[in-house]
Q: What sequence folds into this?
């Protein structure tokens, strides 16, 4: 997949005007982190689709607006932000997959989706945020997500949605089936230490975890972790019930569903390894689910463990993303078992290739 992010080079500051070079770079880096996570979340939604009870069509682009910054910026900071990134109060394309039509370009302003205008984010008072360590007044972008989620639902019939661009041009964009719901993470999080399940089928990864994520696999792990709470929880719970293992995670089940042929080697491997792992509730199961999703996408399944260890070593608060000792021990056992499954799968592929060549 092509990762295209619209971030123009920062212009030279005028003498004596907006000379906040540090802030410009900080804003630019933060936006890069956020857009890269949104890209990872879309790819995880597409790749994990066989694992999810509830699916929908997912758009191959990311829209972003300066008005959606959760922590709020002063007028001076907004000007610095626009200078550094080219972003403003309008909804613009900041990432797009290689599958999008040629008419779309990075930085284009999008006015509407399926004929519905994209509303500007507003503010709301949330008293409960104070008890979580956040601010009572926050930016509310739920109206934007309502438009996008409605367009996703309509795309279930035609596998496409129509974007209205600045100037009135309309572009039909093909979509792809993925896990329903949206996992978000913001570099400008007003509650950067908290993981939240939000209204409108969204889950929010702590901003601290987003900013510490250093690789594509770590971002994908975070996205898969959040996805578990939205679209896959019931299917995994049903699988546990059908195998009569209680509060346990069935090692390799996710991998078997996501990777064609992986299930054929599980029986032999499980004869030599522990079949299940007792998990610490949904959070512990989400760890293992994310490990297997990242592995199924060709990545490093230990990405989440590495991220959690760094967060703890640095004393960075990131809510449930930081693993307890019990969860960490489970993840280590899980990674060992996944390595055995992968080794058996590779050996089976080599044997099949050798047999075909004989």
A:
């Amino acid at each position: 997949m092509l990762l295209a992010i619209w971030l123009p080079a920062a212009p030279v500051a005028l003498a004596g005007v907006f000379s906040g070079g540090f802030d410009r770079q900080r804003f630019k880096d933060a936006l890069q982190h956020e857009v890269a996570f949104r890209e990872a979340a879309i790819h995880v939604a597409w790749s994990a689709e066989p694992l999810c009870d509830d699916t929908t069509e997912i758009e191959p682009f990311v829209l972003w607006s300066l008005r959606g910054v959760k922590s709020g910026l002063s007028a001076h900071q907004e000007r610095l932000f626009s200078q550094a990134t080219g972003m403003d109060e309008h909804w613009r394309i900041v990432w797009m997959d290689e599958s999008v039509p040629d008419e779309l370009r990075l930085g284009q302003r999008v006015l509407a989706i399926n004929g519905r205008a994209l509303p500007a984010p507003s503010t709301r008072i949330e008293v409960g945020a104070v008890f979580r360590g956040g601010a009572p007044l926050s930016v509310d972008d739920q109206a934007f997500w309502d438009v996008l989620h409605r367009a996703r639902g309509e795309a279930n019939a035609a596998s496409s949605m129509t974007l209205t661009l600045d100037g009135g041009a309309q572009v039909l964009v093909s979509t792809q089936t993925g896990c329903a719901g949206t996992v978000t993470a913001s570099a400008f999080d007003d509650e950067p230490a908290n993981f939240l399940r939000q209204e409108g089928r969204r889950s929010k990864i702590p901003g601290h975890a987003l900013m510490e994520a250093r690789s594509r696999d770590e971002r994908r792990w975070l996205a898969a972790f959040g996805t578990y709470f939205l679209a896959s929880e019931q299917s995994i719970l049903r699988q546990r019930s059908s195998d009569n293992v209680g509060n346990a995670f069935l090692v390799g089940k996710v991998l078997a569903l996501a990777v064609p042929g992986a299930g054929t080697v599980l029986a032999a491997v499980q004869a030599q390894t522990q079949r299940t792992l007792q998990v610490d509730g949904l959070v512990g199961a989400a760890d293992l689910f994310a490990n297997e999703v990242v592995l199924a996408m060709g990545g490093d399944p230990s990405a989440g463990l590495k991220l959690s260890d760094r967060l703890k070593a640095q004393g960075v608060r990131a809510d449930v993303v930081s693993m307890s000792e019990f969860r960490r021990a489970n993840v280590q056992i899980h990674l060992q078992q996944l390595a055995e499954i992968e080794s058996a799968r590779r050996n089976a592929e080599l044997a099949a290739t050798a047999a075909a060549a004989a």
